[in-house]
Amino acid sequence: MIIHTLGPKSTDSYAAAKSLLQSEEDDIVEYPSFDSLLHNLEQLKGQHVLFPVAFKSARRDYGWKEFNYDYWDKIELVNVFQRKTKPMLLIKNQQHTENTAMIHPATTIFLKKYLDTQSEQTVVRFTDSKYKAWKAFCKKSMKYTIISEDVYEKEKQPEHTVEERYEPVMVWCLYKIN
Predict the structure, then answer these.
(1) Quick one: DSSP state of residue 85?
(2) Residue 125, H or E segment
(3) pLDDT, mean over the chain
(4) What is the rounded distance in angstroms from the CA atom of residue 163 to the CA atom of residue 80?
(5) What φ, ψ does residue 4 adopt, rounded to 5°?
(6) Coil, strand, or helix at residue 9?
(7) Whole-number Cα distances in Å, 135 to 92, 102, 107, 138, 139
(8) Any residues with CB less than 8 A from the CB of 8 and at least 6 apart, and which?
(9) How far is the C-alpha of 96 from the C-alpha of 21, rounded, in Å?
(10) pLDDT digit string (tens) for 26-60?
(11) Residue 156: pLDDT above 90?
(12) Are 129 and 103 in contact (CB under 8 A)?
């Protein structure tokens, strides 16, 4: 079984796909965004794609629900399962130069609730994965991001503080492309 999903290996999607591998012939193909995976869907006949129900495009108003309905006649739902996401951290850069947050759209509710409790106005920008959000946050000296705890632990900086931690359960859908 070949599973196509969001990469890199640090993503929850990759970890969920890895949990489905059963033999040496099974493999995972990583994509930089779900949008790029969807762009290649026609070439994946007979193979599998894995989406979290929280999938939301950073580029357009499109998510898991739209995918499920848009491709209903080209996909077969073969497995639905749940597992906790990797622990996620809301990180604040105490030395930020931009009053901006860079996050994955699926994590918006966490940041929104936090900003509401702080009565804070921050510009929110989106990218294709938590890992890409982390990289932009570091490079551009932004104020907030949400990143998987394991990535943060390897790359944290002294000016970064952990404001909140989340570990929700995610529902995953494995489809076969017909």
Answers:
(1) P
(2) strand 123-126
(3) 95
(4) 32
(5) -100, 130
(6) coil
(7) 14, 9, 16, 5, 6
(8) 14, 30, 129, 131
(9) 41
(10) 999 999 999 999 999 999 999 999 999 999 898 89
(11) no
(12) no
